Amino acid sequence: MPLRLPDKLPAIEILKKENIFVMDNSRATKQDIRPLRIIILNLMPIKITTETDLIRLLSNTPLQMEIFFMKLKSHTPKNTPIEHMMMFYKDFDLLQKEKFDGMIITGAPIEHMEYEDVSYWQEITTIFSWARTHVTSTIYICWAAQAGLYYHYGIPKYPLQKKMFGVFQQRPLDLKQPIFRGFDDLFFMPHSRHTEIRRDDIVAKNELTLLAESEDSGVSIVMARNGREFFITGHFEYAPNTLDIEYKRDLGKRDDVEMPLNYYINNNPDNPPLVTWRAHANLLFSNWINYYIYQETPYDINKIK
């Protein structure tokens, strides 16, 4: 089944060109199916790119999903047209009485700031708390993963000597977990961050389960509340060219820019990227939707608690 997306969302035409089956709401309303309701809180600067990346991953299941976009009232994005935000995004105030089967909270380029110094910290922590009673399962990505672990469990973040930048090999610690159904013994994940969370802090908390880690990039996936919360420190959703865009954007403008590791063919930035994470990214999101949302969420969505 396809995804139900807001009419005229730019991602629709982009994904149709990739032969990904999506439909707008006008067509979807003709189908007598209770779709899964997925809400995305998009904190990334370039909203349209992130929307497309996430929708691409969500499209890979036979289940119909209806996608909603949430924005923060306390923050105005600078890199996305206001018309786009007004057409496709709603403030948390307008959505807080609704319930959703799944939620994705993205990263944000504010890692160097203390959490409490972030201008929208109060609003986003209200959303973190709200998700626990209004969403069946939530995925926190990159900065949101660190922020969620800090807010819910007191896990600190630590500055890195240099940016964790590239594609790194990860090891799943328990392949019997449904989130890893079909996974190999190793998988790869892009990372782009200046801070980290540490293994010792995670394993010291009985409420947290460390699911995957890397010798190079450290903690990568943490689970809590039997799968109602997942914290992913990397960017499974990244398109093939995202790290390349970041690298070339910052090259010559900052003194801490290094080539992304394990990314370009033969580690030569004149060559195209070698994509090594796409299959497992699709698999992880499909498993999340199937085992932690579809199999767990009530048919009457108002019974989520």
Automatic annotation (TrEMBL):
The keyword Acyltransferase applies. Pathway: Amino-acid biosynthesis; L-methionine biosynthesis via de novo pathway; O-acetyl-L-homoserine from L-homoserine: step 1/1. The record marks E111 as: Important for acyl-CoA specificity. InterPro entries: Class_I_gatase-like, HST_MetA, MetA_family. GO terms for molecular function: homoserine O-acetyltransferase activity; homoserine O-succinyltransferase activity. Pfam families: HTS (PF04204). Substrate binds at K163, S192, R249. This is Homoserine O-acetyltransferase.
